[in-house]
């Protein structure tokens, strides 16, 4: 029986290379044959890789870098999804560390992908940086080299310049930019801020403000629905009129429900400044006392809130953003037969949100 098993094993001479086998091997042999200067073999390796595994971001990246290196670069080597490939590369590898990663390869663990990605990425980053320093390149070639060298996360904005007129990639970029400008982007955020009264209403003191906001942006316009609460008792006692009585109170709590519209005045890279206008309902709860039996004695002041101000926003890579809104609020809390609470308010809010 043992002899039969050995015989069958000797028959197993044919070999099948899986996608993973090919990807793992090219991460070693592409840098090796590049160092040898064997360009014909390099082209054959990449063609074999593409024929067996299909086109991928990594293959296109190697093609572009090697063609810039040997002076044969042409836009014919990529198709209309090149911008998506570049965005994918920046998102996945943009913070790649060139230092060696000491990992062992195994099909049964994630370390296989560590070896493949880290070796190939180290090679392409190093090559792109070398070419930036040593090659006389066109603006388009420099564009790709800067991305693959992880040189800047603002490289795409350079496509707006006249240096790229007539290129395929600028046409794709402008087409994508126009589509993005026509898209509605929903978002939501949490607000943390302060409510600052001005005038007679200063008696109530400054209060923390917490809120939630949901809205959408279209081109330079943004519309939001906001909900907020302000709290913590007043630092001063004031008077309100309830049930034919004057009450001394330092109770304070309030609700804000409103809509805001803003227009982007200025944008620089990831930062923007806009003007804000809004209308809302706002109240101040001035009494919350235990009454006879199970009854509660409450008193609330109501006001229309018309507001205007400025907003600053900084957008991060992961669709999150940090903002600062400063608004002046025109309010009119009529405290009949009680302390004069005439005056307006200022609100300053920090926004922590994300684009959905």
User: How many distinct folded domains?
Assistant: 2
Content of β-strand: 35-45%
CATH topology of the largest domain: Porin
Question: Quick check: average pLDDT?
Answer: 89
**Which structural category fits the helices and strands?**
alpha+beta
Helix content: 25-40%
**Highest-level CATH class of the largest domain:** Mainly Beta
CATH hierarchy: architecture of the largest domain = Beta Barrel
Q: Give a quick account of the main beta sheet: strands, pairing sense, barrel closure.
A: 8 strands, antiparallel, barrel
The SSE order reads HHHHHHHHEEEEEEEEEE
Query: With helices defined by DSSP (H or I, 4 residues minimum), what is the helix count?
Result: 8
| Through-space gap between termini | 65 Å
Over the alpha carbons, how many angstroms does the gyration radius reach?
32 Å
* Large-scale geometry: elongated
- Give the number of DSSP strands: 10
**Regions with pLDDT < 50 over 5+ consecutive residues?**
95-112
Strand order of the largest sheet: 1-2-3-6-7-8-9-10
Question: Which oligomerization state do the chains in this entry correspond to?
Answer: single chain
Overview features:
356 residues, alpha+beta, Porin, 2 domains, 8-stranded antiparallel beta barrel, two-stranded antiparallel ribbon, 33% helix, 36% strand, elongated
């Amino acid at each position: 029986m043992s002899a039969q098993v050995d015989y069958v094993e000797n028959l197993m001479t044919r070999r099948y290379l899986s996608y993973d086998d090919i990807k793992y091997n090219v991460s070693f042999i592409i840098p090796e044959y590049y160092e040898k200067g064997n360009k014909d073999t390099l082209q054959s390796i990449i063609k074999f890789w593409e024929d067996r595994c299909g086109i991928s971001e990594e293959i296109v990246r190697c093609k572009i870098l090697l063609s810039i290196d040997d002076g044969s670069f042409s836009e014919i080597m990529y198709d209309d999804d090149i911008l998506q490939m570049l965005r994918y590369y920046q998102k996945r590898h943009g913070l790649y560390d060139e230092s060696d990663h000491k990992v062992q390869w195994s099909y049964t663990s994630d370390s296989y992908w560590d070896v493949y990605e880290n070796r190939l990425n180290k090679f392409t980053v190093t090559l792109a940086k070398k070419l930036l320093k040593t090659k006389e390149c066109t603006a388009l070639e420099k564009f790709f080299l800067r991305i693959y060298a992880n040189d800047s996360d603002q490289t795409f904005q350079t496509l707006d310049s006249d240096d790229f007129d007539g290129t395929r990639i600028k046409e794709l970029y402008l087409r994508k930019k126009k589509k993005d400008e026509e898209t509605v982007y929903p978002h939501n955020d949490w607000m943390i801020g302060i409510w600052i009264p001005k005038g007679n209403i200063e008696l109530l003191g400054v209060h923390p403000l917490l809120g939630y906001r949901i809205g959408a942006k279209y081109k330079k316009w943004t519309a939001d629905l906001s909900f907020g609460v302000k709290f913590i008792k007043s630092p001063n006692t004031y008077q309100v009129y309830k049930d034919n009585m004057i009450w001394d109170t330092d109770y304070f709590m309030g609700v804000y429900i409103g809509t805001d519209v803003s227009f982007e005045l200025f944008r620089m890279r990831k930062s923007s400044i806009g003007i804000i206008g809004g209308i809302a309902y706002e109240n101040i709860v001035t009494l919350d006392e235990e009454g006879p039996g199970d009854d509660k004695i409450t008193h609330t002041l109501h006001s229309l809130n018309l507001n205007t101000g400025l907003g600053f926003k900084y957008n991060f890579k992961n669709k999150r953003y940090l903002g600062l809104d400063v608004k002046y609020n025109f309010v009119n809390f009529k405290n009949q037969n009680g302390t004069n609470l005439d005056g307006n308010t200022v609100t300053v809010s920090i926004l922590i949100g994300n684009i959905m």
